Amino acid sequence: MENNQLLKISEIEGRGRGLVATQPLKPGQIILKDSPLLLYSASVKNSTFCSNCFRVILQSPIPCSWCTSSFFCTSNCQSIALSSSHTPWVCQSLTHLRNTFSSHNNLNVDQQIQAFFLISAYNLAVISPSSFRVLLSLQGDLSFVSESDVLLLHSLVATCPSLNLGEFGFSKELTAALLAKDKVNAFGLMEPFEADRERGVRAYGIYPMASFFNHDCLPNACRFEYVDTDVNSRSNTDIVVRVIHDVPEGREICLSYFPVNFKYSERQQRLKEDYGFTCNCDRCVVEANWSDGEDDAMDKEGEENEDEEEEDEEMEEDVDDEVNVNGKVEERDQDFPHAYFFLRYMCNRENCWGTLAPLPPDASLSSVMECNVCGNLSKSDEL
In angstroms, rounded to a whole number, what is the distance separating the alpha carbons of residues 196 and 150? Predict the structure, then answer.
């Protein structure tokens, strides 16, 4: 975890713990590079991804020494995994679970993936008790996890080879607590963007600092993943968070948990079902009184504003200062608080809907915007 001196964990009224800027932040500034506490596969089938770094395996895969379902891209990845994420116990347990899945039709895919998470989490308790304690310190609401799932998954993991968890023990209560942490803290490690197919999830990870980012439907930061990159200085499973525009000291840093073009009703349903809260951000307060038809019209207006240059320039003059400083549009523009955001910070590449952030500034601010989904680069004056 790098650059954490730029952020601090604070209690946010009505929102729980969140991350707040400890100094003024510039557009494009990297505020966090975070490595996962743990990772687990999002696929219940054999995959073409390395079981350690989750890069796609382009050459002859190196099979695990003990199981037939795990492969590695290099001998180095294999060596790292055997002493950390893919210990003999994990290997035996995953093999046992896969055999169990094939003989029991009462387990759905989500439950199977949750079982993978529990294996990864209990393994973490053995190889790194301090990291496991960090995992347990994260937010998690037990009411968000069904009792039937807890009983089913706990009994399933209990049939795996025995494991000495030391101070933590193995109990139904701990299993429930872990599932609650996973529910609201896991990030999907996404596959690279391709315009002609839906973007899939390659793995899930829980990140110690990034887990504290709260949601806003008009975020002031966005996360980047560089999956399958050849840049040696980056880990394939790290996430990088950059601010979108100027952020003053003391302002909470928020991400959007999904593409910003979602309609109000879609956003509220997703947040309630997946994270257990109702969003009351500035955008939602305004859109709460809209019909879906009005929402669609405003979305379309935001997408088509690039063809209305005069209006765009006037809007930019009116709101640029407020957006750059506050990340929000002031009261006189509350009829369409997301129109400027769509124009300035949403990628217009077909089927992308990613968020744009300037490249990290060096001596001067960058005018090049990078999409956090498709990776497309564009000049800010072209938007």
Answer: 38
Beta bridge partners of 247: 25
Lowest mean pLDDT among 13-17, 134-138, 210-214, 268-272: 13-17
What is the rounded distance in angstroms from the CA atom of residue 346 to the CA atom of residue 359?
Answer: 15
Residue 362, pLDDT score? 79
From CA 39, how far away is CA 51, in angstroms rounded? 9
Element (H, E) at 129: helix 129-137
Quickly count: other Cβ atoms within 10 Å of residue 343's Cβ. 21
Contacts of 16 (CB under 8 A, 6+ apart): 139, 214
CB-CB contact of 381 with 366 (8 Å): no
Distance CA 56, CA 146 (A): 34
CA-based nearest residue to 256, from 289, 297, 230, 217 = 217
Percent of residues in the chain assigned helix, strand, coil, to nearest 5: 40, 20, 40
- Predicted confidence (pLDDT) at residue 121 exceeds the cutoff of 70: yes
Q: How confident is the model at residue 14 (pLDDT cuts 50, 70, 90)?
A: confident
Pairing of strands 71-72, 377-379: unpaired
Question: Within 13 A of 117's CA, how many CA atoms are on the CB side?
Answer: 29
Whole-angstrom CA distances from 35 to 214, 242, 262 are: 18, 15, 28
CA–CA distance, 354 with 293 (Å, rounded to integer): 23
Residue partners of 89: CB distance under 8 A and separation at least 6: 123, 126, 160, 161, 163
Top-confidence residue, 51 or 312 = 51
Q: Which residues contact 268 (CB under 8 A, 6 or more apart)?
A: 278, 279, 284
